[in-house]
Design goal:
alpha+beta; ten-stranded antiparallel sheet; two-stranded antiparallel ribbon; globular
Length: 339
């Protein structure tokens, strides 16, 4: 058996474990017991989520793509991307969820048998505060460590905004939910090259979707005020924290009364495509993740698209996420139709 066969066996077993709601299929192909235990918790939550929704899992498919391989006398380190498809049915309605899962897999040979020794996700929902490239955002204090705040500059990335700087004017703008969803569908799997890509990209992606739907930028030129994006000038990052930082966007949406704004609802069934959900995994008042609603399932519950852990038509509750805890709180935002 070659190391590639060991890798394919691992991927097949991972796919099977989700369908069975048990990590048992992984035990024969993965020697990382800690990962198997975590996977057991995750797939059980996934199965419970389907049961709560009266959803029946139909089948799972996984496409494997190798993006990098390092071989040595001791083994192989393979960077892979898994494109996952989960097919399920609610009543007579078929649904399909998609996910992109980049992983680094270590494969070695013992007793003339190749086996996956360990695996780690290269994109995770359970992450530190948003990190654009090599710099951390502090979501609590709204500043960048080791970097002076950029002065207010009258600069706009015209290749994105087309019409130049968008300033608030006393006229009504209709939020086009269809266009927001169309953008979310177009760019859920890969980043739009016209924007900077962040290591934790969920909020940047949601902001782009809102802007594509016609939400006007509140361009202040100050990082801790408004909601705006103007690209980069040299090494200078020109966007507001609310554009790219999960907690800052949630705070902006909770307090904004003009331009991009909305109101909190307490039943996810009240959300419509183009609305947003903010996630506070630890229940401590600091939000770490944002998604955009792109549709509804047969029960009238939101399905969402997201970046960082790129996913499409994912069930809103995220209970199978490694970041989810019993303390998780949600902030449901009904985006205003007129701005």
């Amino acid at each position: 058996m070659s190391w590639k066969t060991a890798l394919y066996n691992y991927v097949h077993a991972k796919n099977q474990s989700e369908l069975e709601g048990s990590a048992a299929p992984l035990q024969a192909y993965l020697s990382d017991s800690a990962y198997v235990r975590k996977q057991e918790v995750r797939v059980r939550r996934l199965l419970e989520s389907f049961r709560d929704r009266d959803a029946k899992l139909q089948r799972g498919e996984t496409k494997l793509r190798l993006t990098g391989v390092r071989e040595s006398a001791h083994g192989v380190i393979a960077d892979i991307v898994l494109h996952r498809f989960i097919h399920y049915r609610i009543g007579s309605i078929d649904h399909m969820e998609e996910r992109i899962e980049p992983e680094r897999v270590v494969i070695d040979s013992a007793a003339n048998r190749w086996q996956v020794r360990s695996t780690e996700s290269l994109q995770g929902e359970q992450s530190l505060p948003n990190k654009p490239r090599s710099v951390f955002f502090s979501e609590q204090a709204d500043f960048v460590e080791g970097l002076r705040r950029a002065p207010s500059l009258p600069y706009i990335n015209h290749s994105i905004l087309n019409s130049g700087a968008q300033e608030f004017v006393p006229r009504k703008i209709i939020y086009n939910r269809d266009k927001a969803v169309q953008y979310a569908e177009t760019w859920w799997q890969t980043p739009n090259p016209k924007y900077e890509q962040f290591e934790v990209d969920c909020t940047n992606y949601v902001s782009q979707c809102l802007f594509a739907g016609g939400a006007p930028m509140d361009y202040t030129g100050k990082r801790d005020l408004g909601w705006w994006y103007a690209g980069k000038r040299g090494n200078q990052e020109l966007w507001s924290f609310s554009w790219a930082v999960a907690n800052s966007l949630q705070s902006f949406l909770a307090h904004s009364r003009r331009g991009l704004h909305g109101h909190e609802v307490h039943d996810p069934r009240e959300l419509q495509p183009g609305d947003t959900i903010c996630y506070d995994w630890d229940g401590d008042g600091r939000f770490q993740h944002n998604v955009i609603v792109t549709g509804k399932d047969a029960n009238g519950m939101p399905l969402v698209n997201a970046h960082t852990y790129n996913s499409r038509n994912r069930y809103w509750a995220y209970k199978d996420s490694p970041a989810w805890t019993e303390r998780t709180k949600y902030f449901f935002v009904r985006v205003a139709d007129e701005m």
